[in-house]
Design a protein that fits this description.
Layout lengths: L1 E8 L3 H9 L5 E5 L19 E2 L12 H4 L4 H11 L3 E3 L4 E4 L4 H11 L5 E3 L3 E7 L2 E6 L3 E9 L6 H7 L4 E6 L3 E3 L9 E11 L2 E12 L2 E3 L1 H6 L1 H4 L6 E6 L6 H11 L16 H11 L12 H12 L1 E8 L5 E5 L17 E3 L13 H15 L2
Parallel strand pairs: 1-2, 1-9, 2-6, 9-18
Antiparallel strand pairs: 3-5, 4-5, 7-8, 8-9, 10-17, 11-14, 11-16, 12-13, 12-15, 13-14, 15-16
Bound molecules: flavin-adenine dinucleotide (FAD).
Flavin-adenine dinucleotide binds next to helix 1 and helix 11.
């Protein structure tokens, strides 16, 4: 049995930050991965979007302003700069290493961590609260400590169940949505469209890019809007796409009336305006018979096409497997300001295991840095 004052379960973003800021050096970090913060390598498409220049609670499912006041995006940048990481922000405020390689982030973290604290390549198999402390069993060893930090990421329900900790069920979030009748649009990318998702819990919109898949829709806008489904644990509803959000219905109607002088055949009505597959989808949803000349389109048909352009709609029925984060976890209201469990003393949580999830753009890693730093400093 190995004895420590503190055990940190997980050496992902939050666990690594916690270890880097932990003042009491008598700690062990345990992870099944063989390298620290290894998961960061796949983030931001291999570039690691580590934070954003604009971070506040509006980008998250819950109010984290009090935590951001203690460690925000600017402090994160200072922290990483002190580790030697050079970064830049793109036009959306997304921050990346200037090497454009997530490995740079992993490297600066790894070279600062003391190998003596690291117990990697070990799978945690059980965690118990025993005699005023914690006992962690891995597939290789047994560890004991007075304080325990759990940073094993989203969907860590077995560890939470072992500890008897209260948490909200995990649901995959930031996912591509499965929707009916998208097959004919498979591979089509729409830019600068306004996407609205609706379900019985509410409505959410965002402007940007949508990518059609065989059985649904993907893209950053869709990932962000998927939170309306994941946070409510119900993946049924509607997705509506305004193909020309900058134009009013009246303006589009006038434009279409003018187009009656252009093409001859009905099915060529949108040539030069929309991709073929999109035009066909508009005809289908507006129930337009294109087997006639353009001049034969009635005002009523032009009106129906106008309304469809403003509202191309699909029924959402599920989600794709690969998600970026999980909604759910230990609720902030069950934790103190230092992220210690109110239910179990000396037990701390940080990172995705806490019920804080943000949209795409560096917000989830920012929460990992913020929460990891707060816990590390206060152990
Ligand atoms: C493909 C992808 C791309 C992403 N891109 C971005 C991005 O660019 N920007 C952004 O802000 N967010 C991004 N995210 C989200 C971000 O990666 C997470 O929010 C963040 O990693 C959470 O940090 P964490 O430390 O809480 O958990 P994790 O990083 O998941 O770390 C948990 C650690 O615990 C270990 N662990 C878990 N269970 C056990 C066990 N039983 N035994 C031993 N070890 C265990 C794991 O090996 C892991 O190292 C992305 C996510 C994915 C999946």
């Amino acid at each position: 049995m190995k004895n420590f004052d503190i055990i940190i379960l997980g050496c992902g973003a939050a666990g690594a930050m916690c270890a880097l800021t932990c003042k009491n050096k008598n700690f062990a970090v345990i992870d099944v991965a063989t390298k620290p913060a290894k998961k960061l390598l796949v983030t931001g498409n291999g570039r690691c979007n580590l934070t954003n220049t604009n971070v506040n609670s509006s980008f998250y499912n819950t109010d984290i302003d009090n935590y951001l006041k203690r460690f925000n995006n600017n402090q994160t940048l200072d922290f990483f700069e002190n580790l030697g990481l050079e970064t830049y922000a793109d036009e959306e405020g997304r921050v990346y290493p200037i090497s454009n390689s997530a490995k740079s982030v992993v490297d600066v973290i790894s070279q600062k961590l003391n190998p003596a604290n690291l117990f990697l390549g070990q799978k945690i198999v059980s965690v118990k609260k025993e005699n005023g402390g914690f006992v962690v069993e891995t597939d290789k060893d047994v560890f004991k400590s007075t304080k325990l930090v759990v940073t094993t990421g989203g969907n860590s329900f077995p560890i939470l169940d072992d500890l008897g900790a209260k948490y909200d069920k995990f649901t995959a979030s930031l996912v591509a949505l499965k929707a009916k009748n998208t097959r004919d649009l498979n591979g089509i990318k729409l830019s600068d469209v306004k996407v609205t998702v609706k379900n019985k819990f509410g409505t959410k919109s965002e402007v940007g890019e949508v990518l059609f898949k065989e059985e649904g829709v993907s893209g950053i806008v869709i990932f962000n809007l998927s939170t309306l489904f994941s946070r409510n644990k119900d993946f049924s509803g509607k997705i509506e796409i305004d193909l020309l959000p900058k134009l009013s219905e009246k303006e589009i109607f006038a434009k279409l009336i003018k187009r009656k002088n252009l093409a001859v055949y009905g099915d060529k009505f949108f040539v030069g305006m929309f991709q073929n597959a999109v035009a066909n989808e508009i005809f289908k949803q507006a129930k337009i018979n294109t087997n006639k000349t353009v001049k034969e389109f009635s005002d009523e048909e032009i009106d129906k096409m106008t309304k469809t352009i403003k509202n191309l709609s699909f029924d959402v029925f599920g989600r794709y497997e690969n998600n970026q984060v999980f909604s759910g976890g230990v609720k902030l209201e069950d934790l103190t300001q230092n992220l210690e469990s109110k239910q179990i003393k000396n037990l701390f949580f940080c990172g995705e295991i806490v019920d804080v999830d943000g949209v795409c753009g560096g917000y989830n890693l920012q929460w990992a840095w913020t929460s990891g730093h707060i816990v590390g400093e206060n152990l």
